[in-house]
Amino acid sequence: MSVVHAMLGNAAVTAVLALFALAVGYTCRSPAVRHAAWLLVLLKLVTPPLISVPVFILPASWAEPHTDPTRPSLLVTLFVPVPTESGRAVTGGKATSLTWWDRYRSIGLADCVFGVWAAGTIGWFVWQCRRIVRFRRRLRGAEDVGADVAEAAARIATALGLARPPVVKVATGIGSPMLWGVGRGTVVLFPRELLGRLAPEARDTLLAHEFAHYRRRDHWVRVLEFVATGLYWWHPAVWMARAGIEAAEEECCDGWVVGGLVSSPRRYAEALLATVDFIAESRRPSLPPGACGAANRDARLLHRRLAGIMHADRPSQLRGVAGGVYAVVGACLLLQPVLRTTTPPEVTELTRPAAPVPIVAGPRQVRCPTPKKSVEPPAWATAPAPGGLLTAVARDREVVLRGADGTVWALGPGKPTALAFAPGGNRLATAGPGTVVRVWDTRGNVLAVTHVPATSRAIAYTPDGSRLLVLDADRGISVCDPSTLDVLSRWVVEGPANSLSCAPDGQTVAVAFGSWLDRDTGWVECWSIPDRRRIAAYPATGPVGATRFSPDGLTLVIGSWDGLTAWRSLPDGELMAQRQLPKDLVAATAFSPDAATLPLAPPPLPPAPEPLPVLSSIRESGPIVNR
Predict the structure, then answer these.
(1) Burial classification of residue 500, based on how many CB atoms lie within 10 Å of its CB (0-12 exposed, 13-18 middle, 19 or more buried)
(2) Separation of alpha carbons 310 and 417, rounded Å
(3) pLDDT value, residue 547
(4) Which of 348, 537, 415 is nearest to 108 (CA)?
(5) Kind of pairing between the strands at 187-191 and 167-171
(6) pLDDT digits 0-9 by tens, 404-459
(7) By C-alpha distance, which of 45, 37, 43 is closest to 12?
(8) Mean confidence (pLDDT) of the chain
(9) DSSP reduced 3-state for 627
(10) I need a labelling partner for 510 at 20 to 30 A (CA). Which of 16, 102, 350, 617 fits?
């Protein structure tokens, strides 16, 4: 499973957990319970998928049913100009510049969405790290508090049960008392200007509020928010969870201040209002990343806090039914949903019935209706695996594997450009759509996924299965590891390349060239895979769509797109035979190099037509006279 798929699965589960947290918020008044509910939402976003759970909800066939299967379909082929190294395309023998639209069409929608996601993530972390660096520079002038404030802080920390309370410092340029930092560098910052406005009792309530944040370890929750927001900045549940956590934390800390200390609720409320008034006068009222503030300017939250201060109690731990529910929900964080396609039922064709027999009842004639046949979605290419135990069927919107017993496994949506079976027949590699390359097992599970630099066009295994070659639209040939799809090497060829075929020794690959823009030009090049150099080139009478080596490596079969096939001896390239074959044989081999539809031996020439006996008798009878 790729990282992107795992993150998308976490995002789907997070949406469900957000609905659960909203329901808890509407039905439960305890801020500790609401805080735990929203905290689960953020935890799920950064929890790795330790246990995969398949969810069979995708349709087995993504193709629309054809209302009239007997009607022939119209195949439209689009030919895109092939770019050269200078960024120009060859059209009709002339070089023309590629437009922005030509470059945009080669990029898939999924690639664009992933690019926007990655750009937003990088931008978020760069922006927040810049804010953190600027805030740390501002704190260089922070000083220790006086003896009276330090003594009050020690007394409050003892009352809250803190053995090692954070250091309290005063600083300028901040708008609110805050807890900032993680680990040993955690400090409580107090605005220097605000400290002179508050009475000692009001000051102690704000210090107790920040110590309550430290006691609850809310500064570590800020780290979780920082990471989750950067990775899932586009997810609405992230921003909902941050707002819910902030509100619940402030209410919990208010309960610790009023319920855990002997302080006047009125003095505490006045201290909060004075802090809000000071924030309004400050030029920089916003908190830096990772800070826990004592007050904010959210009117609704402030009203709820002031109303709750008058009857706040120390928040209790999660117990009883609530603790059990959250334990079960927390265990779900380890699960990862994997969307699977449902296995379609085996498609069987009904035998064609005999001609309907009319049944006469009196003067009226009644005919029996002809039963309808179950029609399978049309396939535009098929490729059998070595040994014939499996067959890959490429349809309009999906690729399926069909076993010898008729069992079908759907590999999911996506029309590939080419596919190839591993020599053992236990794996299948698909290229496309777009730049994606996947490797599947015989049960339809994805084993590896990668992306090539441009739109993939062809794919082929070496005979020993140790390497996988991928040809892309930029004329690049990537040599990948067949298990992990890591790129081992890559080189670029010159010309409009169409397909690949590996020699039996696994050291040479034949590349077919040609474009319909120039129907009289085509050729085949043999390249050394280890040395990445061209060994030989063989001409052809037209654009070449596919090639194939003989098992001994002494014959190269070259098939043009129009079906004209040539047999050349290797390594001299001498033309041995040339035959006109159906175009479907060439197209099937180009789609899957191991389909082996091109014959190794040239078929016999058709016999010469014999003269018709009718013409001979006419010649012997002499001229014919019209009467």
Answers:
(1) buried
(2) 69
(3) 92
(4) 415
(5) parallel
(6) 777 787 776 566 788 888 888 888 888 877 888 888 887 778 889 898 988 888 99
(7) 45
(8) 77
(9) coil
(10) 102
Token representation of residue 295: 């007050």
Residue 546 DSSP code: E
Tell me which residue has tokens 């003989």: 550
- Helix or strand (DSSP H, E) at 180: strand 178-180
Helix axes 236-260, 265-281, angle to 10 degrees: 140
8 Å CB contact between 561 and 545? yes
CB-based burial label for 228 (10 Å; 0-12, 13-18, 19+): buried
Residue type at position 207: L
Q: Can you tell me the distance from the alpha carbon of 49 to that of 177, in angstroms, rounded to the nearest whole number? A: 39
Model confidence at 283: pLDDT above 70 = no
Going by C-alpha positions, the residue among 256, 261, 292 that lies closest to residue 156 is 261
Q: 274: Cβ–Cβ under 8 A, 6 or more apart, which residues? A: 194, 197, 198, 202
Q: Quickly tell me which residue has 């690639």 as its tokens.
A: 111
- Compute how many other C-beta atoms are within 10 angstroms of the C-beta atom of residue 60: 16
CB 519 within 8 A of CB 472: no
Q: What is the DSSP string of 75-141?
A: P----PPPB-TTSEEEETTEEEEPPHHHHHHTS-HHHHHHHHHHHHHHHHHHHHHHHHHHHHHHGGG
State the number of CA atoms in the 13 A half-sphere of 322 facing the CB.
17
Q: How far apart are the first and last CA of the chain?
A: 88
Asked if the bond preceding 433 is cis, omega within 30° of 0, the reply is: yes
DSSP string, 337-361: EEEEEPPPPPP-PPPPPPPPPPEEE
Residue type, 154: A
Whether the CB-CB separation of 564 and 589 falls below 8 Å is answered with: no
Classified as helix, coil or strand, 299 is helix
pTM score: 0.49
Coil, strand or helix at 538: strand
Around Cβ 437, how many Cβ atoms within 10 Å? 25
Strands 335-341 and 51-58: parallel
CA dihedral 388→390→391→396, nearest 10 degrees, is 180
Residues near 618 by Cβ (< 8 Å), separated by ≥ 6?
624
Ramachandran area for residue 592 (φ above 0: left; ψ -120 to 50: alpha; else beta): beta
**Whole-angstrom Cα distance, residue 510 to residue 13?**
48
For residues 528 and 535, the answer to whether their CB atoms sit within 8 Å is yes
Q: Which domains does the chain have, with CATH numbers?
A: 9-53+117-334 (no CATH), 379-595 (2.130.10.10)
Strand partners, 499: 512
Burial environment of residue 411 by CB neighbours within 10 A (0 to 12, 13 to 18, 19 or more)? buried
The answer on pLDDT for 312 being more than 60 is: no
Sheet holding 497-502, edge to edge: 497-502, 508-515, 518-528, 533-540
Q: What are the two backbone dihedrals, phi and then psi, of residue 178, each rounded to the nearest 5 degrees?
A: -150, 155
Report residue 18 as tokens.
Answer: 């957000």
